[in-house]
Amino acid sequence: MGTATTEPTDTDAPPRPAAGRRLSGLTRLTRLPRRSRLYGPLLAFLVTSGAFCASWVLRGTFPFGNTGRAVNDQANQYVPFHRALWDLVHGHAAGDVFFTWRGGFGQQFLSDYYTYLGNPFSWLVVLVPRAHVDLAVFAITPITMGTAAALMTVYLGKLKPGPWWQRGVLGATYGLCGWALSDASYIPMWLWGLVALPLLGIAVEWCLEERRWPGVAALVALAWFGNFYTAMMATMAACVLLAIRLVTRDMTGAQRLRALWRAATAATTGILLTLPLLLPSFLSSGSAQPTQAGAFDPVRIEVFLTGMLPATYLWGGRPRLYVASLGLILAGAFVLNSGIAKRTRLVWAAATLLVVASFQFPPTQYVWHGLAVPNGNPYREAFVFSGMVVVVAWLSLAHRPRPLHLALVAALLVAATFVLRHTDDFGGWTWPAVLGGGSVSLLALVLLALGEKRRALIPVAAALMIGVVFAESTVAAVNADSRRARERWAKPVATSNQSITNQFAAVRGVDGWPAYRTDSGAPQSSYNDALALRAEGPQYYSSYLPEVTYRALEPLGYGFKNDGRTFFGADNPVLDAIFSIGARVEPGPAKNSWAARLFPAPPLVTVRPGPYTSPNPAGSVYARQENVLGATVYQVPPVTRGGTPTEQTYAAQCAPGSEAFWFSPEIYGSLRAGGGPEQALQDRMSGVLRLGKVPASGRLDITVRTATRGATAGEHPIGCLDPAGLDAAVGHLKATGAMHVSAGGHSIEATLPEGAKGTAVIATTAVPGWQCSAPLQDFHGLLAVPLAPGTTKVSCTFTPKGLKAGLAGGALGLMVLIAASITTLRRRHP
């Protein structure tokens, strides 16, 4: 480093051959990377994964302590889905890659696989015992982040050759960027986007070099196989990188056109290869239960800029755009570096500013997110900006920035931190990162500059650069974890303990599938307990939960949240009879113990002679249950309401000895029936609640406490179940229903009694993709088939919508890839 004495050249100009003594030096330099080309990526991987794991140690989180590791959807979705993957691979799944009978009473699985299990490192979970799947899921994060850092190191070397350890350090600053630490550290599939960006950057370089077209297509496919959502953002970023390189690289017009053609055709082929997964997922998303995502509202400019400061964590859906102070200082010095051609500096700086500005502009934000409003943090593409900052930082470092320029940028960073210090939620670790990390980074860069004349200083500079990135990023990760854990939605929970182990054992002990379903019971340890515990209940949480499933389960009194994309169980005998639930586990008397309860259940396929209309009030949940059951089993009494808006009283008269139930989906508060225990009311999450047996007097007195203004229980919150009537209804369904049911991975077949007439009803929702031995018939949202005279067998098969077209597109992409590979081989070896 130091003052450049040569004429500035374009950073993309090819190296010129030297002569004489310098030729042997160049030969030695070109041979060294062949032996040590993995050193830089390995350094980046170790620094990145090591710093992230060190933050776990400092926080005392599992597996290095007793603090829970699973945050939000990591506990509710990712760990259960990875346990389902383990079951699938090891032959313990009730279903296959197309469909799962576990969760939501049977749902598609291919789109869930693509979305939640697409990260190739997710397959590591199948190598460990099932009891340790959650630990393997946690390990996916540092492994994926380290891989992203290693690939960024490779990409930086393609942009500009330079010392492997310098590229490795800057690659680590990318793998440890604010988006990775704060937003995606608990989301395995999103983290693949962090990998996809440098992966596609390498593909861009191959297009510019007019080589490895099959490799480009393969890299695009690999990026999109991992996760289409963040891969889409990375692909858009790759388009920006391609445009920059086409402008800054010394190329003819014909070469630029060829590069564009190669990039377009390879990208199309690569995406075609993923179409068997991509198209069904796209169609599943279109038929999913819609959410109430709000319009994009950009944060204030000072908050946006604060997100660029190192080790900063802002509450909620704020942008986390930072990289370590070393990267920020180098990136800031880029525009001042006279060793870089002006055109290159102008184009890279302008493109980086335009990219970050696009995050604040609603139309371009929608483009980044595939023309959809994000249901959560709206700055999910932040890693793109961090990647560009690291690229600019490397170009600056590779062209020996002046110490004076570096000091000026460091001073500007301190000044910016001072100006932004009053921003909402300004991070407590920001000042130490800026002052401490910035000072050590500046010292290391100055020593590196002096090392041109004093070679002994270079190892010191290297140690300081590696150490400051490691330490600063560890602190940033600890800060992100600790501050995020204070938010109610992100409080870490356990995914392995004695209670969960005992609950799993209890579920397995009463497994009867497909003769009957087993409900994993409550309290739930995750929103996807059916998947996690190998049960077949209604518990299900997925972005792909079909609207038809919501419309089938919501009227029957099942609790839900997330705008209907998450369903919970309900301890209600009528619902059990409708969905062929014959076993349920529930907490036992001892701590962490679980007990199983078996009871009669109709078969999975029943026969209904015709439509049934309940005599009870049509607007009540109890009448809707009876319409599906096909029998009257409830008494729905008139209710007398009193009390105050915050402490409401309800009184009703029912048959003594019957079982009382309550349904009030608008109330959030608590409920007490007579002298019974208090139960929580969580509006639509609660579903139908069991109150207990009606006393000999027949009188029910309910007290409801709520702070929900204007909310009441409605006209018919109480239903009293006649156990004998339900037993008779279940017995009739068993006698007239299927004599034998077999369920395949994505199929079901039932043998019916002779003379069966009416409609065969399968206890699963009519999700798009089912085809049966007769045309489908609507039955309150359940899968149903009309029976022709003499029918004794009914069969149905599920095929994900769009799979056939996706396979055709994938086959086309594969043929193009094979043809291109053969052509390339023939050219090399005529």
Structure description:
The chain is of the alpha+beta class and 830 residues long. It has four domains: 21-67 and 118-288 and 302-489, no CATH class; 503-608, no CATH class; 634-721, Sandwich (Jelly Rolls), CATH 2.60.120; 730-798, no CATH class. It has 27 helices and 25 strands. The strands form seven sheets. The protein has a five-stranded antiparallel beta sheet with strand order 11-12-17-14-15, with no helix packed on it. A hairpin with a 3-residue loop joins strand 19 (740-743) and strand 20. The longest helix is centred in the middle third of the chain and has 28 residues, at 457-484.
Measured distance between first and last alpha carbons: 47 Å
Roughly what is the average pLDDT, rounded to an integer? 92
Largest sheet: 5 strands, antiparallel
State the domain count: 4
What multimeric state do the chains show? single chain
* Percentage of residues in helical conformation: 40-55%
Which parts are unreliable, with pLDDT below 50 for 5 consecutive residues or more?
1-11, 13-32
| Secondary-structure-derived class | alpha+beta
DSSP, total strands: 25
Tell me the β content: 5-15%
- Walk across the major sheet and give the strand order: 11-12-17-14-15
Radius of gyration: 31 Å
Total of DSSP H or I helical runs spanning 4+ residues: 27
Overall body shape = globular
